[in-house]
Amino acid sequence: MGKTLVEKIFDAHRVEQPYPDTHVLKLDRVFCHEITTPIAITDLMARGKDRVFDPSKIKAVIDHVTPAKDSKTAEQGKILRDWARRHEIKDFFDIGRNGVCHAIFPEKGFVRPGYTIIMGDSHTCTHGAFGAFAAGVGTTDLEVGILKGVCAFKSPKSIKFNLKGKLQPGVYAKDLILFIIKELTVNGATNMAIEYTGPVVDRMSMESRMTLCNMAVEAGGTVGICYPDMTTVEYLWNYIKDDFSSKEEALKDYSKWISDKDAIYEKVYEYDISKLEPMVTFGYKPDQVKSVKEMSGIKLDQIYIGSCTNGRIEDLRIAAAILKGKMISDNVRAIVSPATPAIYTMALKEGLIEIFQSAGFCVTNPTCGACLGMSNGVLASGEACASTTNRNFNGRMGKGGVVHLMSPATAAASAINGTIVNSQLYKG
Amino acid sequence: MKNFNGKVLFLDRSDINTDEIIPAKYLTEITKEALKPYLLEDLSLKGFDNKEDIKDKVVLVTRENFGCGSSREHAPWALEVNGINVVIAESFARIFRQNMFNCGMMAIELPKEQIDNLFNNYSGSITNIEVDIDKAKIYVTSSEKSEVIDFDLGGFDKVLVQEGGWVNYADNRY
CB count, 10 Å around CB of A81? Predict the structure, then answer.
C-alpha cells in the first residue's frame, strides 16, 4: 500500500505512537510571533523551565502589531525580544527587519520539503507549499515545541485536488482557493491535509502555491500541501546550493517527498478550472463565496492589500499593473502592506510603491495589522472592506465591519471603482 | 483534574469561531485572567448576553465546528477563567479541540441526534451536566428530566485531562 506525502513525513519524524491515533513527531522548525508566544515563555519561566530545545531550529518575529501601538503590545514585543536574546535565537526579526511570519520565514529559506513545522498561528499551513508538514497550534503545543522539540498529531488523513485546465486572465490562486473552500465548506477538511496537484499547480509560482496552502485552514484543513518540484528548488536555491551539486540533484533528493501513486485518500477531487471566474466572499464565513459578477456593485469603504495570503511581490505587481496611471475612487480609502522588507524594497525598485502612492494608497510597513483588526486599518461599524486577506469573520477587521475576501487584482480594480468590480474592466 | 460538573450554557449555532469567542483586540493581554470579561463578546447569536448568560456556567453545549478560525489558545483560556471547562458539540475545529485537552479541559463530540436532543429537551430550562471521565458518561439533569449519555474519549485525550495538560505530560516523558 502506498503512502501519502504527509504519511511519509510522519514516518520520518515519529518519536513514538503512545496511542493508536496519536503520533508524537520530532520538529524541524518552531516558528514564533509576539501574540501567542509570550504566554508560553512566561509559563515556562513560572515552571522553572526557561529553556529551548534547539535555538537554531526556532525562528521568531514581531509581526502582528508593529511598531507597538500601546504599552501592552510593547510588553509582548519585549517578552519575545528578551527571550530571543537570552537563548541566542539568531533568527529573530525585530522592527526594521520584520515581516509577516508566513512570508518572511519562507523567504529566508527556513522551510524545506519534508520538514515538520509548528507555529502558534493558524495560517502556518502556508508552508505546506514547499512539501512540508506545517500546522498551526495553540500556545501549549508551542510551549512544548519550544521546550522539547516535539508535537502530537492524530493519524494523518489526506484529500487530494487534481486541478486541470488553465486559469483565465484575471483569475488567480486566490480565486481558486475561495472556490475550493466553497466546495469543501468551512469544516470539510477538518483533521485532514489538503494536497493540491495537477497541471494548474505545476505551473504556479511558489507565491501562488503559498496563497493556495495559506487558506487550507479556512476549510478546517491541518495543512495545504504541494509536491516539491523545480519551482521549489529554484525558490530555495540560494539557501541550498551548498548542500547539492546541482539543481537536478536537489530535485532528485526532494522527490522523495511526493505521494505514492497508490496512496489512500479520504477523497479525490478533480476539477477543470478553465472556466473559473474571479471570486469574492459575502457574509461572515470564508465558504460564503460568489463570483465577482454576482457581487458587482457592492459599495466599499476601505481596500486592503497585504497579509500572509496576498502580500507578496507577485500580488503587488498584479495590483500595481491595474492601478498604474489611475486614482482610487473618492469614496474609498486604500492601504497596501508589503509583507516583508525584501518585498518592500523590490516594490520600491520596480516603481510599484510610486504607483500605489500616486493612486492614493497608504503604504504601510510590513505587518499583519489590519487583517485581524489589531492595528493599521481597523474598520468602523457599518463599513465594508475589500481585502486580500483570509478571514471575513464577524468583527474580524473591526466591530460591525464587513470583509469581502478577494484577489489583489479584484481589490485593485474595486479600489478604482469604489465598488466590487471585475479586474478585467481595468485590463492594461 | 478540573471541575466537570455544573450548569450548562446552550449556544444554538454552528461555526462559532475563535474571533467570536475572544476578539483579536484582547490578544494583547499577557495573563489569562485578564480575558475574563471579554468571553464571547462578539458572538453573533440573537438574544445572547455575554454579561449575564455566562455567569456560573461550567459546561457549554453547541453545534458543529466549534472553535474554527484562529489558533489562539486565548479561546479555551477565556472559557477556563470563566469556569467553563467542558464544551460538548457535534464537532470541533482541530486546533481548538487540541488546545482544550492540552489545557486539561474537555471537548466532547456527540452525534447530531444527541445534540439535537439536548437542545430540544433542556435548552429552555436550568440544566446541570456532570462528566465522569472514568465511566465515560455524561449525566444531564434539569428540574423535569434527567438522562445519562455515553461518550468516547481517546486514550491520549483522557491522559491529558488526568495529568492536567500536555506540558505536564510531555515534560515527564520527552
Answer: 16
